[in-house]
Amino acid sequence: MEAIGSDSDAIIVVGGLDPSTYAGIIRDCITISNLGGESIAISTCLTFQNHHQVYEVQWLTEGQIVGQLDAFDLRRFRWAKIGALQSHELAKAIMTRLKQNQINVVWDPVFNATSGYVFFKQDEIALVPSLVQHVNILTPNINECQQIFGTTDPYQLRHLLAERWPSLTVI
Q1: Structure pTM?
Q2: pLDDT of the residue at 8
Q3: Which of 5, 47, 92, 149 is the most exposed place for a label (fewest CB within 10 A)?
């Protein structure tokens, strides 16, 4: 396998730094490695949590996050996986930067932790459909699907996606 930053198939992983390693960029990088791939990690926040509860989140600024991305030659990457983001504005900035470099985006939106901690600004969830134009694959859980699309019915989703976002894959 080629070195990270050269013409490689490494994946950019963007999301929260979860010290319990059960979620976030550490877990994603471990999974990619276990599947034989390589990755780089871009942190959006530091979480104070254990396996059961999130106690606090410290968000990095847009400049700090974009600065991490700019440390790499982004033209060398083909895919990025995005997780925890704080806001629509931050999501748009990151996705736009990736798309400017022809990077395919997989977005696994993280609106709330399983324990209930709120990550994504709730009053901005209505803006999320405007981000879909920057996404190739979207992997919402059932609650996020309801919040984004207003339904979890597979037939309604199929019709809505075919009508509004025919090139989007939802898993």
Answers
A1: 0.86
A2: 64
A3: 5
What would the pLDDT profile of 78-90 be if each residue is shown by its tens digit? 999 999 999 989 9
Q: Tokens standing for 149?
A: 């699309």
Residues 6+ apart with CB under 8 A from 95: 82, 105, 107, 131, 134, 135
CA dist 51 to 22, 37, 44, 55, Å?
A: 7, 26, 20, 11
Which pLDDT value is given to residue 43? Answer: 97
pLDDT of 101 over the 90 cut: yes
CA dist 143 and 93 (Å) reads: 24
Q: Which helix (H) or strand (E) holds 92?
A: helix 88-100
- Residue 41 has a pLDDT of 96
Count other C-beta atoms under 10 Å from residue 45's C-beta. 21
| Residue 27 structure tokens | 């877990």
Read out DSSP for 98-137? HHHTT-EEEE---SB-TT--B-S-GGGGGGGGGGGGG-SE
Torsion from C-alpha of 139, 144, 148, 150, nearest 10 degrees: 120
